[in-house]
């Protein structure tokens, strides 16, 4: 139970790149992924910016080799999961106990919402192939089959903390000696359902989002997927290259305040960060960088900021929200940002928080605005908080 | 360390919720769908909140609260749920308005409550429970994934009392779509004859069941949840079950009762019949889906049944297949499969 879990591979796709290399280049060049809506057929086109993956479904089908009716959620998932598994290059993968733990929030909604238009007009209409794989679990299954996973797969959905919980659950499957290797993360495609949902909550910024800025006005939705390959110590020893780092701490706590809003003092966020530190045996001052949840909504950044202040004051590590690049990728955000955190340790990078101008009046700190490379980072914290009060923090540490 | 089922609460199409009797007076349904019997939710939920809550939230919150009451525990240290389709009522409401109103002037409530973690979140909110909170949404093993999570938390000593639930609501839209996909019977039937009248398709169902899992031994515990495992796309179910039993230092002969996922669909039931005449030829056999219908987390109904069978030492007549077996009920195996792709195995033992 005390053995550590190592990160052997990473893969990511989002509005700023379709693999790890493209992401690192976008970060260094300050290239954000937001823009006008081009893929969704919605009345919000031209009004609300989003961070789309710059590939059509047709292009994603050509890349992945999946059938033409496949949901974009699964298409995005396979691109990043495959990259992660190839990166890990695990010897004798087939002989090991393997698992796939993935997360998403609305399953095949991108197809179901098309089906629903015809179905509403007449319940005997609508193409069944567009709704057959509606369930969140279908997305995981489609990708697991492609990866050759045989022993165990499951899907987690805890709103915007979903894929952080997937990584955390995967690590525990290894620690409990149920599996040797788990590919874990999450995926979400932009849909009209979520775009309209977040729009009704009036938390979408009509401009590009400004996380942790005094004048922030909301979030921009994004899409993508990110995966880590987690391996046991035993498997780590068989690898031909060094692991990236280890997952040293994790915690899942509930804010128990409101279905969608965060408590003013960020109770859940505080408990998650504190719990993850306790798990790793680290002190706040050991953390070298925090990848913030930082959605850019007034409520989230204020609650998360209050929690960071309570835990870290007066010594604040560098921190930033990479959602200023990728937008808020919902169920995928936890694992996309986990990939960024792992890459931060490996490459000594602190990511800039784009478009930051004015420090929040209630907070004694501000996010990092410059791209920093070549710094020794030993411990990186990644925060993911969601609807339903679901708060999760992960800590990655140099192996 | 052992995992005990301290208490269990179940809302189903039968009188299972806060019932004095154990599956007596079975409710008959004629059609292709079974609906849950609704309790008076005012006992469990603030009436002001009930109005805005969808069916799955009400069922989930009421069973969770009743489960805690039975266990005499006010605050669990973790809340974990499993649901394949999640909050369908709110999802369909929001989708319908989005289409009909062309994305304009949409109210947020249905969207807010449509996320799959809403039941676990609402339970946490009502209890002010800041502990571990997770929701699994993987088809026919959603509930099993939640149980595996709870088992690990107990072993890790991260929690000692965990609320685990399986919830699923069937709304008209999902029932219609799943009927078109061929899951249910084309002709109406009686649930009492569902398992004997073999045809293509089964009857749709729904329900919620919550369990308080604990690592503490107590005379009040219902049963021990000895093991949970899922198999995916296996070519040899019999070998998979034998291996699972061996991992638990058991042989097929040690199983006193097998609770199967038989649902009356010819395509579905063959494996259960095969096992009943092979490795389980000497075990008692019980079935449950004629009582609650088929749904992705119906194994939570089976676990409620198994825990009560073991505690009470009786097999209700309505679930028992007529086989000679007078052995004491010490070891019960639940075997259910979901479209023959996901296989779920649980061992429930007398304490």
What is the secondary structure topology, with strand pairs?
The complex is a heterodimer of chains A (399) and B (351).
Chain A: E1 5-14, H1 20-28, H2 57-64, H3 72-88, E2 98-103, H4 109-121, H5 136-147, E3 152-156, H6 162-175, E4 181-188, H7 192-200, E5 224-231, H8 233-236, E6 245-254, H9 267-280, E7 289-291, H10 298-312, E8 319-320, H11 323-326, H12 333-347, E9 379-385, E10 390-397
Parallel strand pairs in A: 2-3, 2-4, 7-8, 7-9
Antiparallel strand pairs in A: 1-5, 1-6, 4-5, 6-10, 9-10
Helix pairs in contact in A: 2-3, 3-5, 6-12, 9-10
Chain B: E1 4-11, E2 30-31, H1 47-50, H2 55-71, E3 78-82, H3 88-100, H4 109-112, H5 118-127, E4 132-136, H6 142-155, E5 161-168, H7 172-180, E6 189-190, E7 207-214, E8 223-232, H8 237-247, E9 257-260, H9 266-277, E10 284-287, H10 289-292, H11 299-312, E11 331-338, E12 342-349
Parallel strand pairs in B: 3-4, 3-5, 9-10, 9-11
Antiparallel strand pairs in B: 1-7, 1-8, 2-6, 5-7, 8-12, 11-12
Helix pairs in contact in B: 2-5
User: Separation of termini of chain A?
Assistant: 18 Å
Question: What number of structural domains do the residues of chain A give?
Answer: 2
In the CATH scheme, the class of the largest domain in chain A would be Alpha Beta
Taking the alpha carbons of the first and last residues of chain B, their distance comes to: 13 Å
SSE arrangement of chain A, N to C: EHHHEHHEHEHEHEHEHEHHEE
Q: What is the N-to-C succession of helices and strands of chain B? A: EEHHEHHHEHEHEEEHEHEHHEE
* CATH fold field value of the largest domain in chain B: Peroxisomal Thiolase, Chain A, domain 1
Strand content of chain B: 15-25%
For this structure, the quaternary state is heterodimer
The name CATH uses for the topology of the largest domain in chain A is Peroxisomal Thiolase, Chain A, domain 1
- Give the beta-strand count of chain B: 12
Written description of the protein model:
The complex is a heterodimer of chains A (399) and B (351). Chain A has 399 residues and is α/β, with parallel strands linked by helices. Chain A has helices at residues 20-28, 57-64, 72-88, 109-121, 136-147, 162-175, 192-200, 233-236, 267-280, 298-312, 323-326, 333-347, and strands at residues 5-14, 98-103, 152-156, 181-188, 224-231, 245-254, 289-291, 319-320, 379-385, 390-397. Chain A folds into 2 domains: 5-236, Peroxisomal Thiolase, Chain A, domain 1, CATH 3.40.47.10; 248-397, Peroxisomal Thiolase, Chain A, domain 1 (3-Layer(aba) Sandwich), CATH 3.40.47.10. In chain A, helix 6 crosses helix 12 (333-347). Chain A is globular. Chain B contains 11 helices and 12 strands. Chain B has helices spanning 47-50, 55-71, 88-100, 109-112, 118-127, 142-155, 172-180, 237-247, 266-277, 289-292, 299-312, and strands spanning 4-11, 30-31, 78-82, 132-136, 161-168, 189-190, 207-214, 223-232, 257-260, 284-287, 331-338, 342-349. In chain B, the strands form 2 sheets. Chain B has a 10-stranded mixed sheet, with helices on both faces. A two-stranded antiparallel ribbon of chain B has the order 2-6. In chain B, helix 2 (55-71) packs across helix 5. Chain B is globular. The mean pLDDT of chain B is 96. The chains are: A alpha/beta (399), B alpha/beta (351). At the A-B interface, helix 4, helix 5, strand 3, helix 6 and helix 7 of A face helix 3, helix 5, strand 4, helix 6 and helix 7 of B.
């Amino acid at each position: 139970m005390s053995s550590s879990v190592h990160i052997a591979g990473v893969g990511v796709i989002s509005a700023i790149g379709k693999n790890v290399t493209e992401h690192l280049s976008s970060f260094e060049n300050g290239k954000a992924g937001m823009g006008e809506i081009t893929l969704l057929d919605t009345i919000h086109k031209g009004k609300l910016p989003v961070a789309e993956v710059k590939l059509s479904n047709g292009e994603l089908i050509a890349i992945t080799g999946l059938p033409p009716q496949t949901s974009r959620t699964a298409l995005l998932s396979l691109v990043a999961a495959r990259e992660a598994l190839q990166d890990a290059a695990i010897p004798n993968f087939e002989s090991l106990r393997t698992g796939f733990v993935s997360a998403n929030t609305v399953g095949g909604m991108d197809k179901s919402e098309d089906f629903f238009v015809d179905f509403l007009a007449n319940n005997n209409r609508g193409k069944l192939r567009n709704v057959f794989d509606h369930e969140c679990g279908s997305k995981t299954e489609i990708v697991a089959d492609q990866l050759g996973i045989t022993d165990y797969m499951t899907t987690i959905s805890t709103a915007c903390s979903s894929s952080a919980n997937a990584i955390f659950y995967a690590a525990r499957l290894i620690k409990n000696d149920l599996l040797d290797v788990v590919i874990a993360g999450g995926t979400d495609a932009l849909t009209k359902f979520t775009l309209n949902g977040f729009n009704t909550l009036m938390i979408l910024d009509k401009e590009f989002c400004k996380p942790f800025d005094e004048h922030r006005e909301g979030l921009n939705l994004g899409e993508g997927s990110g995966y880590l390959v987690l391996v046991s110590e035993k498997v780590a020893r068989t690898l031909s290259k060094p692991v990236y780092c280890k997952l040293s701490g994790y915690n899942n706590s509930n804010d128990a305040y409101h279905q969608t809003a965060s408590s003013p003092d960020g109770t859940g966020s505080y408990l998650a960060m504190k719990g993850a530190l306790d798990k790793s045996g680290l002190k706040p001052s050991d953390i070298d960088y925090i990848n913030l949840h930082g959605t850019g909504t007034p409520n989230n950044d204020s609650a998360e900021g209050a929690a960071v202040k309570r835990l870290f004051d007066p010594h604040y590590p560098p921190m930033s929200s990479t959602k200023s690049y990728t937008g808020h990728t919902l169920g995928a955000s936890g694992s996309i940002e986990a990939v960024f955190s792992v890459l931060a340790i490996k490459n000594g990078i602190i990511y800039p928080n784009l478009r930051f101008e004015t420090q929040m009046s209630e907070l004694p700190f501000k996010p990092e605005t410059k791209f920093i490379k070549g710094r020794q980072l030993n411990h990186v914290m990644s925060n993911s908080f969601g609807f339903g009060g679901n708060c999760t923090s992960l800590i990655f540490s140099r192996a | 360390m052992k995992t005990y089922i301290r208490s269990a609460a179940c809302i189903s199409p039968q009188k299972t919720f806060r019932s004095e009797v154990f599956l007596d007076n079975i409710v008959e349904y004629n059609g292709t769908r079974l609906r849950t019997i609704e309790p008076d939710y005012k006992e469990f939920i603030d009436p002001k909140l009930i109005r805005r809550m969808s069916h799955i939230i009400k069922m989930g919150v009421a069973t969770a609260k009743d489960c805690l009451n039975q266990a005499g525990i006010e605050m669990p240290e973790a809340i974990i749920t499993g649901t394949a389709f999640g909050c369908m009522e709110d999802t369909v409401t929001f989708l319908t308005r989005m289409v009909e109103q062309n994305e304009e002037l949409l109210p947020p409530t249905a969207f807010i409550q449509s996320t799959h973690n809403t039941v676990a979140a609402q339970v946490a909110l009502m209890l002010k429970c800041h502990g571990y909170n997770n929701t699994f949404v993987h088809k026919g093993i959603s509930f099993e994934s939640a149980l595996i999570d709870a088992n690990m938390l107990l072993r890790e000593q991260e929690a000692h009392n965990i609320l685990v639930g399986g919830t699923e609501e069937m709304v008209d839209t999902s029932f219609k779509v799943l009927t078109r996909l061929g899951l249910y019977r084309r002709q109406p039937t009686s649930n009492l004859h569902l398992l004997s009248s073999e045809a293509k398709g089964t009857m749709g169902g729904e329900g919620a069941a919550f369990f308080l899992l604990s690592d503490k031994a107590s005379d009040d515990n219902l049963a021990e949840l000895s093991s949970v495992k899922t198999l995916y796309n296996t070519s040899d179910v019999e070998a998979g079950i034998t291996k699972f039993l061996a991992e638990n230092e058991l042989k097929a002969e040690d199983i006193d009762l097998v609770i199967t996922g038989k649902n009356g669909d010819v395509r579905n039931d063959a494996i259960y019949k095969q096992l009943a005449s092979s490795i389980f030829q000497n075990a008692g056999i019980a079935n449950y889906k004629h009582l609650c219908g088929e749904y992705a987390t119906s194994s939570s109904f089976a676990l409620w049944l198994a825990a009560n069978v073991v505690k009470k030492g009786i097999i209700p007549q309505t679930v028992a297949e007529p086989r000679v077996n007078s052995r004491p009920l010490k070891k019960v195996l639940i075997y259910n499969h979901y479209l023959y792709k996901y296989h779920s195995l649980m061992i429930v033992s007398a304490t």
